[in-house]
Write a structure and sequence with these properties.
Shape of chain A: globular
Radius of gyration of chain B: 22 Å
Largest interface: A-B, 13 and 19 residues
Structural class of chain A: alpha/beta
Distance between the termini of chain A: 35 Å
Strand content of chain A: 15-25%
Number of domains of chain B: 1
Helix content of chain B: over 70%
Shape of chain B: globular
Number of strands of chain B: 0
Radius of gyration of chain A: 14 Å
Oligomer: heterodimer
Number of helices of chain B: 20
Strand content of chain B: under 5%
Order of helices and strands of chain A: EHEHEHEHHE
Helix content of chain A: 40-55%
Distance between the termini of chain B: 55 Å
Strand order of the largest sheet of chain A: 3-2-1-4-5
Number of strands of chain A: 5
Largest sheet of chain A: 5 strands, parallel
Structural class of chain B: mainly alpha
Order of helices and strands of chain B: HHHHHHHHHHHHHHHHHHHH
Chain lengths: 137, 508
């Protein structure tokens, strides 16, 4: 039995509190609305630095949830402290039996690639369902 | 005056200017990071003193000390997490201001206030320190012994909320200071020849500040990140200036004398300054909602008290803060006789240091006003990277003292002690000061008793000693009365640097 990725029943959006995360949520939101699918938004941090700009503030998460619920979506928002952010997204997708994951991808410099891992890349490689990579406008 | 000009000449050589710059940049950076303070940084940098000239090293250390005060205020204001105990009060109004969109003004009044206070207090230091040293140099061993007892007592009992915990730390420190055979008899060496020379203070300091803190962080690694308030270039308008300059001056007036007392520390003057500004303000309704006076006053007070603590350090050889204690260790590492004679015997070094304080202050203002947003970025460094580096330098530093693997074992053991103290809320400051002053206390006592040929009454034979014991007695009575009057009141004041961090950063 195969399900078309354009008619998913559950969509997971990997959300970071920046343009890339917002682009991912916007796309996932549009797909979920069109298909009448459930939407799971995952915003996570390793919590090992004093400040993580990609981890959304509580107020922001509340506002996001209210906005999505207001649009009539069945929404679940995960806002967690996890050992590994990419793994948290994949696990959330598995648990929700999602058939589509949306991530935002960013341009990275060669040095950046050398020093830092990419959450998006690991989600794309590890997820057990189709993954859509989006970029901000 | 000539001495001061010579000092400026020494401090303004390109090499020393470079060290001052490194010092203030490093100091600001560690001040910004919660949990890593100037004391830990100086402890980690002590091995540097083996290869760098005394004047350069001391100038760099002074830069770190002052820089730490600046950096702490940045974290308080933007993150509501005081980097240093001295900026706890700043966080109250500063963070409220930042939340109301006035972060730039809060940072500006903190930075400019620190500069004003630091400069005035340094000038006061130029006048007071030599005078005090000249007075103290005439005192005999009994008076000096009494002064040390007062310093130990005050640091332990006056600062900090729990006397019991303070004294536990003090006696642990005195016990560590006893180890060795310096008196001819082996004490607490457990037959271990490697302990015969005593435990090096560098190892104790590095273990307590770096290893203890690293273990603590490792035990609480994952925490919800704090919300930082984005900030642009610090600036102030006319109204902010008008409301800031008086609190700056009043804060300085509180900070310097309190810093200069043997029971120094920045907590009391910053608190007093805050209370005064609240009372005198024309906008009392703004307090608690982000009043600029509440940032300007305490910030000035904490920098003035940092300058003040150099008075007992240079004139008496008595450290009253953890950072000053490590600076004393550095001076001793160069083989200088610390105490009232330091200012005469090493006048060139002391005056180079005193002159460099003004330079450090100016550098800080130049560096900090434009760079505040960059400092805030430091907070994004993942802690594992940060503490891996700290552990590396801590081990290197401890090993380089004697090139003995045994010191690394000691480092770990005392590090675990530091972690346990942190866990049970025991302040570190009395311990480190006990380790440093314990042996000196004993030395003064033996000198006094040798002169009197064993007659104990010599200890209260000098008027200064009698007065000092009177002060201690008064403090004891005040403590007892306070204890009886309000037995159930919970401790309201923050304890020490590390203790404060614990409260502020405990997992939520």
């Amino acid at each position: 039995m195969t399900i078309s990725p354009l008619q998913p029943r559950c969509v997971v959006a990997a959300y970071s509190a920046d343009d890339y995360g917002r682009a991912a949520v916007a796309y996932a939101e549009a797909v979920a609305l069109a298909a009448g699918a459930r939407l799971v938004v995952v915003n996570a941090t390793r919590g090992d630095s004093y400040v993580d700009s990609r981890f959304a503030a509580d107020d922001e998460i509340t506002a996001l949830r209210e906005r999505l619920v207001g649009e009539g979506l069945a929404v679940e928002v995960r806002h967690d402290l996890v050992p590994d952010v990419a793994e948290a997204v994949v696990t959330a997708a598995d648990q929700a039996q999602a058939d589509l994951v949306v991530v935002g991808v960013r341009r990275r410099t060669p040095v950046g690639k050398l020093l830092l891992g990419s959450v998006a890349q690991r989600v794309i490689l590890d997820a057990h369902c189709p993954v859509v990579a989006v970029k901000p406008d | 005056m000539d001495l001061l000009l010579d000092g400026f000449a020494a401090a303004l050589t390109p090499e020393n200017l470079l060290f001052a710059t490194i010092g203030v940049i490093l100091g600001t950076a560690v001040g910004v990071l919660p949990g890593i303070g100037p004391a830990m940084t100086l402890a980690l940098l002590l091995p540097v003193t083996y290869s760098v000239g005394a004047d350069s090293a001391i100038i760099m250390f002074a830069g770190i000390y002052y820089g730490g005060m600046y950096g702490g205020s940045t974290t308080s204001i933007l993150l509501n997490t005081p980097g240093e105990s001295s900026s706890v009060i700043t966080a109250i109004e500063g963070n409220k201001m930042a939340k109301a969109g006035r972060a730039s003004q809060a940072l500006a009044t903190a930075a400019i206030g620190s500069f004003v206070a630091g400069t005035i207090a340094t000038v006061a230091l130029w006048i007071v320190a030599p005078t005090v040293a000249d007075l103290v140099v005439t005192l005999g061993a009994p008076s000096y012994f009494a002064l040390m007892v007062l310093a130990l007592f005050a640091v332990t009992a006056v600062l900090g909320s729990s006397k019991m915990r303070g004294f536990i730390a003090l006696f642990l420190g005195l016990a560590i200071g006893l180890v060795g055979t310096s008196t001819g008899q082996a004490r607490l060496t457990f037959g271990e020849p490697l302990l015969a020379d005593g435990i090096d203070i560098v190892v104790v300091a590095v273990a307590l500040f770096a290893i203890g803190e690293a273990l603590w962080v490792a035990a609480h690694l994952r925490r919800k990140p704090l919300e930082i308030i984005p900030v642009g270039q610090p600036w102030m308008n006319k109204d902010d200036w008008r409301r800031s300059w008086k609190p700056w001056l009043r804060g300085t007036a509180y900070g310097f004398p309190f810093g200069a007392l043997p029971a120094g520390g920045a907590e009391i003057p910053t608190f007093l300054s805050y209370a005064t500004e609240k009372k005198l303000s024309k906008h009392p309704e703004e307090f608690g909602k982000g009043a600029i006076e509440g940032v300007a006053g305490p910030e000035a007070a904490n920098n003035a008290s940092a300058a003040g603590t150099l008075v007992p350090l240079l004139a008496l050889g008595l450290p009253t803060t953890a950072t000053a204690a490590i600076m004393l260790v550095a001076l001793q590492g160069y083989g200088f006789q610390t105490g009232p004679t330091l200012m005469d015997q090493h006048a060139d070094l002391v005056w180079a240091l005193l002159a460099s304080l003004v330079i450090a202050n100016t550098l800080l203002l130049i560096i900090n006003l434009p760079m505040a947003p960059i400092w805030a970025k430091l907070l994004r460094i993942p802690r594992p990277y940060l503490y891996a580096g700290i552990l590396f330098f801590a081990s290197l530093g401890a090993y380089s003292v004697n090139f003995q693997a045994f010191d690394l074992a000691l480092l770990l053991a005392i590090g675990v002690l530091g972690f346990a103290m942190r866990r049970f809320g025991i302040p570190v400051l009395p311990l480190i000061i006990g380790v440093i002053l314990g042996p000196k206390l004993e030395e003064q006592l033996t000198t006094a008793l040798k002169i009197s040929q064993g007659d104990v009454s010599t200890l209260w034979s000098e008027p200064v000693a009698v007065v000092v014991y009177g002060v201690i007695a008064l403090l004891l009575v005040a403590m007892a009365v306070n204890g009886l009057r309000a037995p159930k009141e919970p401790p309201a004041e923050p304890d020490t640097e590390l203790d404060t961090d614990e409260k502020e950063l405990s997992p939520r």
